Amino acid sequence: MATFTLTDGWTCGPFRGPFAAIGGPADDAAVSLPHDAMRGLERSPDVPARGAAAYHPGAAVSYRRRLDVPAAWADRVVRLEVQGAFRHAQVFVNDQLAGSRAEGYARFWVDLTPFLVEGANELRIETRAGEDSRWYSGAGLHRPVVLHVDPLIHVAPDGVRVTTLGVDAGVAAVEVAVTVANAGHRTATTRVESAIDAPDGAGLDADSSPVTLAPGAVTTVRHRYHLVDAALWSADSPALHVATVSLDSDASPEVDPDPRIVPFGIRTVTVDPRRGLRINGESVLLRGACIHHDNGPLGGAAFPRAEERRIALLKEAGFNAIRTAHNPASPAMLDACDRLGMLVMDEAFDMWTRGKTTMDYSLDFPRWWREDLDALVAKDYNHPSVIMYSIGNEIVEVGTPHGAALNRELAEHVRALDPTRPVTNGINVALAVLDEVATNAGLNEGMANPDQPFNALSASESATRRIEESAAALDVIGLNYADSRYALDAELHPHRVLVGSETFPAQIGTLWPLVEEHPHVIGDFTWTGWDYLGEVGIGAVAYAEDKPELVGLEREYPYLTAWCGDLDLTGWRRPVSFYREIVFGLRTEPCIAVRRPSRAAHTVALATPWAWSDTVSSWTWRGFEGAAVAVEVYADADEVVLELDGVEVGRTPVGERMPRVADLDIEYRPGTLVAVALRGGAEVGRTSLVTAAEPALTASADRTALAAGVRDLAYVAIELRDAAGVLVMDADVPVTVTVDGAGTLAGMCSANPSTEERFTDAAWDTFDGRALAVIEAGEPGEIVVTATAPGMEPARVVLAVR
Q1: Start and end of every Glycoside hydrolase family domain (predicted)?
Q2: What is the largest CA-CA distance in the chain?
Q3: Which of 39, 98, 319, 468 has the highest CB neighbour count under 10 A?
């Protein structure tokens, strides 16, 4: 098998029907994949999708590429692997339709063999996106496209599956199943050979067996291994073995001579209501983050390095699991999760038969859901990081008889494809019974609860009855915003296993103790771990003085992001992230967050349940000397003392307003602010904030050595810091970035949730003292990145491309 990642050589332009050729040739732009065709379009408050799409318009585009076919391919099978095309993709070869797919996140295969001719061919892929998503989807070929050229006798696509059958007394039983196809016209016999290597590269075992295939036949060969003291894969120790599979090509040139290399992990996954989730027999609580698929300034494009960086930073922030909301993860993201040790709930759909937006997947679901679940499992099977499949998110119809029957059908389809992983569904219980609210007084009373109306409704008798059938078909019941069912279901349904599949970020202080208390609740997934494009402003604190406009829960143009992530769009940890880490028991050092003094006199008009307080971890507030400021200290303690330059300025109990939160009002004076956490009068931790001196412009890269030819990335943080390195968050300036040498500026942003700045621009204002430039490597050489700002010395960073 020869594979070619078709990264370069593409052009992209607006969709043009056959009659458009009368107007002359298309003026398309050269692009490289992965590519988001929506990212650079003009935003407007009047676009149909409004804030859901971050005020981006829809996009119907055509990608074109020349494909040269040598004579040697005459006896080959040529397939195209499209890892993600948003949306309604059609693949044409020489103007002939070769394949299509409706879903924008599904990986799919297209057989090009019947349409190719020797010499030059035109490959064209058309996609259409608009009013079909509740968040920013991006558009076009947002994930890689790979060409596969196979001899007639070959391992089928996704034809190697490695399964851990069990681990007992230090012996791991592992099966390597190889699906072999004969696309020729003669019966052939070959040998299937497989070998297992340890994480350190040492050979562990190998096997070989003959297989005979009639013309057109597809069959499976299985090798079973029993490995002694093999390293097990887990989030804490992500040990990856390698299976190498090949066919004996000595007997015939029609047999594929190239090996398949498949990384895999040896691990088991079980769930039960008494011991919860166990991986390799060890109990694990899921410290989870829901995440959308976009990569901030890169839009929806799934660059492997961008996916890896997100997973690494989420893990550093204390998460051990992600939920891919609400669509299948890219192969690159799963590769990163395998390497770094991040558990994955991979989700298939945001809707089934009942639409949530005008032109969404509900129109395609009846035709495509089986193929899309097939694609999900085929993609995920060898990834040890994937521990659970989710068949949906907040599916409206799960509370109806027909919806429950469909839920069971989907769950059984997934189990038939892969019986080794649990199946879940993120059920918004309140949504499933909203149709009864108008006619049921008890439900109306529940909805009238001013604190948690959906949570109260989720615990109602009606909700219990309506979701019973759907819940019974699942291995793990996902509950969105319904922690009121945790204790209730332990009593009513003692055989159920639950997970908080989506929860409000500010409630983790009360939610996590519930997870720890109830063994049948296996974890919590906050909305969200990382800020994202679209659903704009749902987590932003709205002040009356700003005259905010709301469209549903979303905010007015030019809001760009949801502003509800533990990490902002640049990957910077917000105060809620440190609070969560303390609640998880992973951090003993307290955290200080200060409400912005410039907003002290303003009136909060709206703070949704997805919002955190309008705070930053800074003690630099020039112009507010002598003003009263509100300070929040997050600590696993019973009392907090604040000291300013060694003098006590405040003392208060922890937990009066929120668990593990102390609130203090003190006078702002420059200096060193220290928070001391006390338990029983004894110090258990301390932290400090220091007032910054005059800022200078700085630039620092997350990595300075990049690989050539693979669209590798470096993330350059452009920050305002003083000589001691203290971040200056109250003095934002316009910054311009230039890139010289062997690289280009792939995108730029700040964390500002409301801005008209464009990701394709090289000039942004810093926000809370920071901006971010994403640099893409080109050919081998040196890259010089220079940041400039008015009245400041330039900042430079040098990167090497090898």
Answers
A1: 697-797
A2: 89
A3: 319
The residues pairing with 604 across neighbouring beta strands, listed in sequence order, are 543
What does the pLDDT read at residue 445? 42
Q: Determine the angle formed by the axes of helices 331-340 and 365-380, rounding to 10 degrees.
A: 30
pLDDT digits (tens, 9 = 90+) for 4-26: 999 999 999 999 887 776 666 67
Half-sphere exposure of 537 (CA within 13 A, CB side): 24
**Would you place residue 456 in the very low, low, confident or very high pLDDT band (cuts 50, 70, 90)?**
confident
**Measured between alpha carbons, how far is residue 494 from residues 12, 456, 488, 701 in Å?**
55, 21, 9, 51
Does residue 205 contact residue 195 with C-beta atoms inside 8 Å? yes
* Among 702, 762, 749, 797, CA closest to 310: 702
| Distance from chain centroid for Cα 38 | 19
> Looking up tokens 């899309």, which residue turns up?
372
Q: How far, in Å, are 38, 557, 613 from residue 54 at the CA level?
A: 11, 8, 23
Q: From 1.10.357.10, 3.30.200.20, 2.60.120.260, 3.40.50.2000, which CATH number describes the 2-151 domain?
A: 2.60.120.260
Single-letter residue type at 628: A
CATH topology of domain 153-267: Immunoglobulin-like (2.60.40)
Tokens 């029993």 map to which residue?
Answer: 226
Would you say the CATH fold of 272-530 matches that of 2-151?
no
782-800 tens-digit pLDDT: 999 999 999 999 999 999 9
Report yes or no: 267 and 236 within 8 Å, Cβ to Cβ: no
- d(CA 492, CA 13) in angstroms, rounded, equals 57
Cα dihedral 661, 667, 668, 674 in deg (nearest 10)? -50
The pTM (predicted TM-score) of the whole model is 0.97
Q: What is the mean pLDDT of residues 691-697?
A: 97
Query: In 243-364, where does DSSP find H-type helix?
Result: 304-316, 331-340
**Do residues 748 and 774 make contact, with C-beta atoms less than 8 angstroms apart?**
yes
How far is it, in rounded angstroms, from Cα 298 to Cα 773? 10
Q: If we measure between CA atoms, which residue out of 490, 522, 506 comes closest to residue 577?
A: 506
> How far does Cα 395 stand from its chain's mean position?
20
Residue of higher predicted confidence among 425 and 169: 425
Q: Give whole-number Cα distances, 769 to 365, 673, 674, 756, in Å.
A: 45, 20, 22, 18
Name the CATH superfamily for 696-801: Immunoglobulins (2.60.40.10)
Q: What is the length of the chain?
A: 802
Bond before 107 cis per omega within 30 degrees: no
Q: Which CATH architecture has domain 272-530?
A: Alpha-Beta Barrel (3.20)
Mean pLDDT across 414-443: 85
Smallest Cα–Cα separation from 529: which of 757, 391, 324?
A: 324
Averaged pLDDT for residues 631-657: 98
436 phi, psi to nearest 5 deg: -95, -10
- The rounded distance, in Å, linking the Cα atoms of 277 and 424 is 13
pLDDT of res. 450: 43
C-beta neighbour count of 358 within 10 angstroms: 11
Which string of b and e fits 306-334 if b means at least 16 CB within 10 Å? bbbbbbbbbbebbbbbbbbbbbbbbbbbb
